[in-house]
Amino acid sequence: MPKKFIFRLTLLNALVVTTFILVTSWAIYNTACFLVEGMVMDVGRQDQFKSALFEYLLLFSLFAVVVGSTLHFYLTTKLIRPLQKLIKSTQRIKEGFYPEAIHVHASDEMGQLIDHFNQLVEQIKMNDQQRRMIVSDLSHEFRTPLSNLNGYLNAMKNGVIEGEPKLYESLLNESKRLTNLVEQMDQLKEWDVESGKTLAEKEFTNIAIVVEQSVEMFRWLLNKQDIRCVIQADSRYVEINTFGIYQVISNLMGNAIRYYKGKNPVTIKGECLNHVYKVSITGEGQHIPQSEQEKIFDRFYRIDNSRSRKQGGSGLGLAISKEIVERHNGKAGLISNGNNHTFWFTIPIKEE
To answer: What are the domain boundaries of the chain?
Structure first.
């Protein structure tokens, strides 16, 4: 808060207090003079009384104005001191720095304002860190396929290598992987809270049918890779965005097939549990260390970078699935014991 503002505020307060004191003193003076005139007293003593009264009231008024204005200036300065810190903090943000949290002990409006400001600064800092992380991850994701494409195309241009169907197919696969990555990024953005996408498009749907239809889309791939599949889904109408849940199950099924290693069938189970409908997909795959399981749903995360790139993974599928489930007020997770993994998600059950 600029000192000029404090000075103007104090001056205005002093003007109001002075006016009030002068009016009060004038009323007291005239009232006292009127009462004295009605008493049996000579003119000289009356004049002396009026003069003494006027001097006392004048001194008292000046004392009250000076002390009141000084006290008001001190208390106002102390009261708005957090606001001065707030101004300095906003200036730091304007300069591109993140200020330290402002500590206040008051729980009034000023304390609430400072508390909200501290939370805002922390949120901005987290968003900036996430933005930097995403930019770094994106550059990492795009660098390898672009380098491959540029290297081979440049070599073909200079005549170092000659084009052949197998090379063209490899370059096409790299191009498809870039396209797939961009599409998945768009899907993730679509389901982000900041995008403004609401769940007004939800409708009551038999989720067992959604599960069966989603898995059926992979039937040809399952048969091709000779992977058995077992579906056990309880029939239940749940309020969902059908497209979103299709996408979640498809992402989980795609991962189960892409990283499948074993002989046991992939099991898809849907069951009603304590006011939620739980869908789980269990299958054998590559080992997931215990320390890595909590990160499995992070954006661009891979357990084995080289293997994921070779198989076409982008590290976005599980992040998209988690975002969609959370937008349904549900939860997603992983249960793993060695090479046997169960990816699950829950959707709240609401009555129609």
So the answer is: 3-79, 200-348
